[in-house]
Amino acid sequence: MPIKLDKLRVWPLPAVVAWLAAWALLASLVSAQVDALLAHAFTRRFAQEQNRRSLSLAPDALRAIEAHGWPGNIRELENCLKRSAIMADGSQITAEDLGLPASTAASEEAVFDLRTVRDEAEKKAVIAALARSNGNVLKAAEMLGISRPTLYDVMHRLGLK
User: If 32 and its partner were Cys, which of 66, 102, 123, 149 is the partner (CB 3.0–4.6 Å)?
Assistant: First the structure.
């Protein structure tokens, strides 16, 4: 049986893009909250296993857990918290106890400084363009969509040679 096209509803592209962006944002927020909930559950379990009833997660540890991407998913989170529960000195697991990369733990504070974020993004783009062009400034400028003198100005401002 053929599909009747007169009943097919077509969504305008901006509405679809907005919906997908909202869905992606919601998914990332839910993921961070799920990570925090799992972290609390694992911490309680490992505290009971080691007879350390007062063991909990410090606020900086929670921020680090929420900021980390967890490429190994739940198993990586579980192993990280098990190791941290064993190695923690006090009654709280800190970000340092987790042993996550420093950039992950500090990334939340850096996000709010727009100038720093913009400079870091520009620096990464310039370095990538220069790498792809084998150090040829003119080709790198063309890749970035700016003039060669502008690229030199950007490189000077960012401290690149």
Answer: 66
